[in-house]
């Protein structure tokens, strides 16, 4: 059986690469003939997508085709293409019950669109007569008839697994300049600008770097082309972002066409709101780039694409049952899971459908008690977004969002729709969005004139709301899931950062930097030292650094929030009220001084900027740790902006982690201060000056945060002309060893000053250590008495109790031990100790160290006594301080790892006698 031919045209060959993953678009990188039997047409681009066998796929396919053709500039044939695609996709996903693949091919003289399904049964008869359209009320079966009526060429192709219906729409012949036109408007209705409209033209390469920057861009943003060419646009763009959701600037630059608002950070550091239109192009070499047209946000009318209002069933498409389906088309192109774009497009099309001046869409909370404003249009852009209103606002039919409502004149019912208060809107129609009987949202359209809407408009809007409710709820759940994943990632990263520091000031800075700008526009952290103290403003951060000082000054003039331990965020109105009053005072001052006092503008500008920055919603979250409020985390938005509930819940989770990290930092700081104070008491406050002898000490305690360990040293006067010195090592490190260190150092001073000689001092110290019982530690100790002599030498009497032997360096470079080893302390009760006398001649050095120096290891190698002696031989002629420094440097260089044992170095030198 051969393939049937309808309308006198043979079937066209289907491109082999038409089967593409769902919702994937890609440019065509090959050229070929669409139909070389009828007309030579070069394919210049393509877009393809697949749609699941679901009813809502019909609307999504129409949106896909509409956006594709509009992006290609083929607006003249969009309506016919959408109608034909709607019918063919409906046949596939509804009647045949299979997935549908849609392929759009751009030719030099028109567009070819192919719709394929997985139902290859051949039911198309060969007909020579014109195809009858039949009854317009019958269900289905009109797709091929519409192709015959609207398409210039079309056909059907069968394979064992697919059936493909294709059609081609030719571009009409038209002179230049008649592609699109708008109505003639009176001058008062034209967009108002405050000067010459400047359109910044910026070209971005494949990697996101700026390659072109025109004069208007330089005028708008303050950067010259030389300053920005080659830099990523992401360095300049201030992109609105919610954790886990939204399209970033990098993604937007990859789209074939994109329109919307964001900000550009100007050369002065402030963010300039802009409205942008992005168009992705490809040069003759095949290299893709993006052309961005940007204007100031209030001049968006220059770039904004006019919205289309369907007027007929042909414009709107049809549903699977053959009836008109107006709402699914005017919802437009966003993918079902792109909630923000879907909601914004919804309110814009709803406003146009009822010829309103404003529209809004609110989403219900999970418990259906409140509605959150998510997408307003025609209203102050950000003033009510994410604000919440109760579902049951009052008694009766018109006080509940669960029922459709029409208000002829809001002036007769003030407060009936709080969202519209002060906007000038008089009449409004609102309808609920419901899924399986559950309230999921509310859609409303308002007009400035009274009496604009009746029950008929309410029914139309309700029908539209019913058709979009499921898509909105599906997109909301998808956004919520992405937000939760993003929130978990955010909290994991925040926990890692907070756990990585125990410094209080750094913890405060991290808290603020993690919230701005991800969760809030500005942040302030109050801390409470103790229960009797008032909250203290410790840290302020704003995404615009120039506003930080102004916010800090404003907050310092108002009482801090009450330290209430109740969990969750609570609204704090004081900053907004103070900002409003400051703005009023500044404005009044400006008016009273008149135009001749322009010099005050330098002070008025920052004041108004600060007021605008703090004038939005402000919330306070308590920082509670160990059942005590230790501070408050304050988050704020700019003028009349609100927080969304998911952000507040994320901020609450962050505040709990931050509170514990802040309290840990406080406890660590307190304990560190106490520990360091106690440790410093174990070391001598300073070294006494000894006439005729140079003395220097270097001390290193092992372990982070330790100032003293098991090693210690001391040098103190005993009596006139006599000084005691000691260097010791308690077994082990840390606080337990430091306790024995304190006992040894203070006992040595006391016993020596009582007149005991060296052996007697150490014997009594040994008894004191043994009296400690289980807390006692072994102790090696080098103790001696130093007496400078009149001839310039120095006499030392030393006892070396189990300690590394002191080394004597003579002027000729020879090194020798200066004492003999004797038993260590803390082991035996009865010790037989004796002292030895050493005389240091002028130029001689006595070096005393602990075993942390001699036992310094690198793998199997150890510095040892011989290695220390070798280093000391190089120190001839050096001062005592230089000798100690050279020994420490050699020890540190001997191994790469940090020292694992305490180290102490005591160097004493008798200077040479200067000759006249």
UniProtKB/TrEMBL annotation:
It holds the Pfam family HATPase_c_2. Residues 201-231 form the PAS domain. Keywords: Hydrolase. The keyword GTP-binding does not apply. Residues 1-40 are annotated as: Disordered. GO terms for biological process: regulation of DNA-templated transcription. GO terms for molecular function: phosphatase activity. The keyword Lipid biosynthesis does not apply. CDD domains: HATPase_RsbW-like, PAS. InterPro entries: Bact_Sigma-Reg (IPR052016), GAF (IPR003018), GAF-like_dom_sf (IPR029016), HATPase_C_sf (IPR036890), HATPase_dom (IPR003594), PAS (IPR000014), PAS-like_dom_sf (IPR035965), PAS_fold (IPR013767). Residues 22-38 have a biased composition (Basic and acidic residues). This is SpoIIE family protein phosphatase. It comes from Streptomyces mexicanus.
